[in-house]
Amino acid sequence: MKATGIVVEYNPFHNGHLHHAAKAKELSGADVVVAVMSGQFLQRGEPAFADKWTRTEMALSAGVDVVIELPYAFATAQASEFARGAIHLLDAAGCASFCFGSEQGEIEPFLNSLELLNTKREQYDTIIHDRVQTGISYPKALNDAYLSLKNSSSRYADLTKPNNILGYHYIEAAHAVNRAMAPLTIQRIGAGYHDPLEPGVAIASATGIRNAFFEGEELGELAPYLPTSSIRLLERVHAEQQGFVDWQRFYPMLRFTILREGPKALARFAEVTEGIENLIHESAKRSETFDVFIARVKSKRFTRTRIQRMLTHIFTGYTQQEAQAVKQPEYIRLLGMTHNGRRYLNERKKAIPLPVISRAADLTGSMGQLDIRASTLYLQAIGADSLKKEYTTPPIYLGDSSDK
Amino acid sequence: MKATGIVVEYNPFHNGHLHHAAKAKELSGADVVVAVMSGQFLQRGEPAFADKWTRTEMALSAGVDVVIELPYAFATAQASEFARGAIHLLDAAGCASFCFGSEQGEIEPFLNSLELLNTKREQYDTIIHDRVQTGISYPKALNDAYLSLKNSSSRYADLTKPNNILGYHYIEAAHAVNRAMAPLTIQRIGAGYHDPLEPGVAIASATGIRNAFFEGEELGELAPYLPTSSIRLLERVHAEQQGFVDWQRFYPMLRFTILREGPKALARFAEVTEGIENLIHESAKRSETFDVFIARVKSKRFTRTRIQRMLTHIFTGYTQQEAQAVKQPEYIRLLGMTHNGRRYLNERKKAIPLPVISRAADLTGSMGQLDIRASTLYLQAIGADSLKKEYTTPPIYLGDSSDK
């Protein structure tokens, strides 16, 4: 059996994701779609609006065959590390190709960009370093470096676009893994990432959908944008979790943690650098809500996403020391599979170079312990009753594929 | 004007405390009663059931003239350190005497004990050290040491009794401060410390009264045991805090904090020693309620009180490093005063060797910052709205003494 890989967060799973999984399979000619998915915390530095098991079930109900958890150490890291961890896992899982959505919609410009940047790596790194020193954000510096190097006679990926940047990092990571995993891309269609919901557009952004949740829209009204299975699972998790999860919900715990650590100690957590610890501490002291808090801390230099990643690391107690020890993903944690996915894994099993983990209790190394810790804290912040879930939930198995 | 000092927690202020304050004044012939009171966390390693301002107001309404906050670094330390900090502050506040309640009820046996133990200090310390090594608790070791040294021809304080032990430490501390502050004691009357409430006994234990609260008794039914002013203030704080405070209420935050730190890092907090960090971590993971949790952790060697002090330090992030840096109290933080108390302080002001602090913003050193942190975390754990209180609450002034 042949597999293609995708990298996802499914926050939540919507029609755009349905399209992505189907197209990945079609373009690659694969029999199964393997998704590497962030766990309880996401790359933009946020707790997932619903736990990883619910999001896994959504994916399995709508075209994905295997869901693997991207370890916390990669899932909440900056884009290049996120991509590196994800691509490494797709490679380990035996995917012959991987497929990402991009604004670009064609693979060639990405390959040109990679070649350009690889041949001019030194200049590129120097420019990024210098630009970051002037106080601009990392994505902006990356784009500036790239613009100043590119050759007008070739077609390059537009690295001002968020999905193109991520795609570039996937390709860069796949190149480094040095294996014949073929890169594929599909055009993102429908709404942009940050766009609000538009009636009549069958593909809405995850952000738009989440905002609709938090503004109290009925789940039923989101039916045009989500597979029926997603709606059903969202209704279930909404009842179980007593609402959806966002930073505002976790703010009492976050604020407590920031105030408890004090400004000095905050500087030891991953990504917390350059004296921002005082601003974080002072703002937490003065802000009653998360929105007020983040508005006080974010700036042109420290984007909301970057600040949120710092907050995620403070929340989970993830230190710079821990981050520096991260090398490669050390295991494949299986969150779920369809009947088809199980057949693939059984066939493939012996060729997989990493341990395939079905139970949290088997995660004995520090990378796995961190995943357990992050998940447990997420569950504790929702409500103490569900704390054992991390240990007792087996990989979700969806034998019935009638939903697809 | 002449002052006598008392050391209190008022958790809550009840008829026994009323008796104590009145008797201290009577025995000492003082014009004012100065109380050194624990802040938001207590010596038995618990959050106070009501905030320090409410407890101050109870005290001022019922016979105490000046309330000074015992800094966290002493208030939550073991008995000898607790006593040392409190006595130091009473001395700094200019008290000519201090008065404590004891099972003994007479001062001479305490002075005999002190002399005995001072002359045999080395043997005493050796015995305590050896006994603790065998796995028995510190108070038990202290009592064993003392029993094996005492001379049958003199009358000694019975150091198996909790209030006698504390009294002994007061006298020991006053002796070390080396000043002519006269020790006085009164017989504790009514219920014992741990006794449940008994109808018809006008003095009930604070523990008994608190248990009645948490078991849902109407405040009005406690009228026989508390001054009217205390009942009124309890009703107010119950509404403000949405109930009273105990570890169960703080358990979600405590549990989150323990799980976030992980077993290894727990060992850096004050009093967390001898490998108990693993048991604390494992028990937090498995226990849905504080009662179940503490039952799992406490033992003959690690008493409930000792464990609770560890938990308090974990909760507030108070490290061994911070604890080791503690020397003497560095300021007199004024929580409240009556008209009479204000007159005394004004008269005395210039002779007070420590800064008298009325606003949290003036607590700039690490000891004061710790007080702010502990109080702020207490407020945050109750509910975010009241977080600024630590900064905005001035010392309570009770001009009207009609209540006494």
From TrEMBL, chains A, B:
Q: Which GO terms describe its cellular component?
A: cytoplasm
Output one GO MF annotation: ligase activity, forming carbon-nitrogen bonds
The enzyme's E.C. designation: 6.3.4.-
Q: Which Pfam families match?
A: HIGH_NTase1
Family membership, please give it.
Belongs to the TmcAL family.
Biological process according to GO: tRNA modification
The species this protein was found in: Planococcus rifietoensis
Name the UniProt record assigns to this protein: tRNA(Met) cytidine acetate ligase
Q: So what does this one do? A: Catalyzes the formation of N(4)-acetylcytidine (ac(4)C) at the wobble position of elongator tRNA(Met), using acetate and ATP as substrates. First activates an acetate ion to form acetyladenylate (Ac-AMP) and then transfers the acetyl group to tRNA to form ac(4)C34.
Please tell me where ATP binds in this chain. 7-20, 101, 163, 188-189
Main location as per UniProt? cytoplasm
Name the InterPro entries for this protein: Rossmann-like_a/b/a_fold, tRNA(Met)_cyd_acetate_ligase
Keyword Repeat in record = no
Query: What are the entry keywords?
Result: ATP-binding, Cytoplasm, Ligase, Nucleotide-binding, RNA-binding, tRNA processing, tRNA-binding
Cellular compartment(s): Cytoplasm
Q: Which reaction does it catalyse?
A: cytidine(34) in elongator tRNA(Met) + acetate + ATP = N(4)-acetylcytidine(34) in elongator tRNA(Met) + AMP + diphosphate
Q: Which domain of life is it from?
A: Bacteria
Q: Which SUPFAM superfamilies match?
A: Nucleotidylyl transferase
